[in-house]
Amino acid sequence: MTAYDDRPWLALYRDQPPDYEIEFDNALDMFRAGLAEDPSGTALTYFDGRVSRQELDELSDALASGLLANGFQAGDRLAVYLQNVPQFVVAMLAAWKAGGVMVSINPMSRTRELSYLLKDSGATVLVALEALYDQVGRDVVPDTDVRLVLTTSELDFQTRNDERLFAGMRRQRHEGTTDLLEFIDEHRGAAPPPVQLAPDDVAFLTYTSGTTGVPKGAMNTHRNVVFTAQVYRDWAHAGRDGAIFGIAPLFHITGLIGHIAVSTLVPAPLILAYRFEPQVVLDALAEHRPAFTIGAITAFSALLNAPGFSKDHFASFTSVYSGGAAISPTAEKAFLEATGIQVHNAYGLTETTSPMTVTPFGSPSPVDPTSGALSVGVPAPSTIVRIQDDDGKDLPLGEIGEIVADGPQVVAGYWGKPDETAANLPGGALKSGDVGFMNPEGWVFIVDRKKDMINASGYKVWPREVEDVLAEHPAVRESAVIGVPDEKRGETVKAFVSVKQGTTVTPEELIAHCKERMAAYKYPRSVVLVDELPKTVTGKILRRELRDQPS
After folding, report:
1. Are residues 180 and 251 in the same domain?
2. Final residue of a domain: which of 438, 472, 489?
3. Has residue 4 been placed in a domain?
4. How confident is the model over 426-453, as pLDDT tens digits?
5. Among 13, 30, 359, 391, which has the minimal tally of Cβ within 10 Å of its Cβ?
6. What count of other Cβ atoms lies within 10 Å of the Cβ of residue 443?
């Protein structure tokens, strides 16, 4: 595929050939190459615990052998219901070694959600934290196809037992379950028979958030995984200079690729800290001195505002990327001033196996002079990004439309949902649902989610633009803008705002701030001050929850 032609920004990559070779047939071979290169090197760090690449290989061999001995077959699905713990990576590799597919499940999923995901995927094995099985899984599993439940603890693989995360936690054994590490010990020393995984075989199912219906299982193939891991290594410099810090949840596509996959490819150590807690993360950064991470800008903002934060916490980093949530020029500038490091943008979806566009390492994203939006980068190698109208026709450069991506990172479809696949992936290209534009130099700018557009008296208002203006106020920490019914205007603009610690501001002052800087139809008519905005576990603000609140 020729994706570049004579795009002006190709000059940025004189050392990067347009025909981008995918180096491995599957993600398991990618892991094995890293293992052969550095068997004694650290694969995973978890507080004071360390797992070498050789140990990781042996643990996953034993688990895969045990799975096969208990009836697991090629193509079967193994569901992982865990936080950021070493067992996640062990289970993922074991699923592949047994010829299977991993299903990544958000650890915040409750009964209804877990039930749907297990039934939809048809998973036959569940690997879960003991507490999550106790709270949720025990009521769900009997009604699914799950035949084997392996439970494990966040206390394993480390001895520190940080009270900020693990206070009151204890080991739990549940009827009908088997302890994961005991299961591995039972099969330790065994090796599964060789498995041939094809590039188009599904590596894992990652479920969309279900904002426009039920969650859909994106079928991320081994080709998808290897390709995007290479993009992070080559374009974002991930892992080149040292360890990778796992700030994003591993179940999410950002964590799966930007943390796990790239760490196996380089290879580079992956540092895990259970879940995001700002003080714990700051301590881990100071102790382990990572060189790369990618996470939501909301997580980075939480670190900058955490007590005790200093510039030294980021002194070891050579590359920091933001993905999973929009970033404003104000937030980019604040991060640079606080850390001395330029945060770079990357943009992708579950269906693009993480990045479809990447800001070149060392090149700050441009800001569009008209909208004030910060670019999310240029198309990744071998990737074609188009801007299309509602009829699927390509729009000229500079015009706003839906962002559509076609390339080696785009998934084959949704698990068991041919109609949704045909609608969202026509001809193999992904209709992202995001609205944006491309400038003549090939930089892509996101305006907003298509469904979030506000129609005020016939005028289009994009929440992102209002949120970016609010971010310029010195008291604003975060904001979310929605449209609410209005008798005269059809819809009008409403903002929810959280303020920085130690500052005060009134809704009237924020309205006046926007009114001075925006057209009359755009500025918010009402502002609600809140302590915290609702977010996904990845840090993306949930506008839909704000829309569902009573007026």
Report:
1. yes
2. 438
3. no
4. 999 999 888 889 998 889 998 866 677 7
5. 391
6. 22
CA–CA distance, 60 with 64 (Å, rounded to integer) = 6
Euclidean distance between CA atoms 178 and 92, whole angstroms: 18
Amino acid at the residue 450:
K
Which residue type sits at 232?
Y
Token pair for 546: 């704000």
Nearest to 434 by CA among 386, 469, 468, 394: 386
3-state secondary structure of 366: coil
Measured at the alpha carbon of residue 244, what is the angle toward residues 235 and 310, in degrees to the nearest 5? 105
Task: Identify the domain containing residue 510 by its residue range.
Answer: 453-547
Q: Is the peptide bond before 278 cis (omega within 30 degrees of 0)?
A: no
Strand partners for 271: 45, 245
- Does one domain contain both 405 and 506? no
Q: Into how many domains does the chain fold?
A: 2
CB atoms within 10 A of CB 146: 21
Q: Is residue 196 part of a domain?
A: yes
Count CA atoms closer than 13 A to 541's CA, side-chain side: 25
Could you read off the pLDDT of 275-293 as tens digits, one per residue? 999 999 999 999 999 999 9
Handedness of CA 246, 249, 250, 254 (dihedral sign): negative
Q: For residue 374, give the DSSP letter.
A: B
Answer for the pair 376, 359: CB distance below 8 angstroms, yes or no: yes
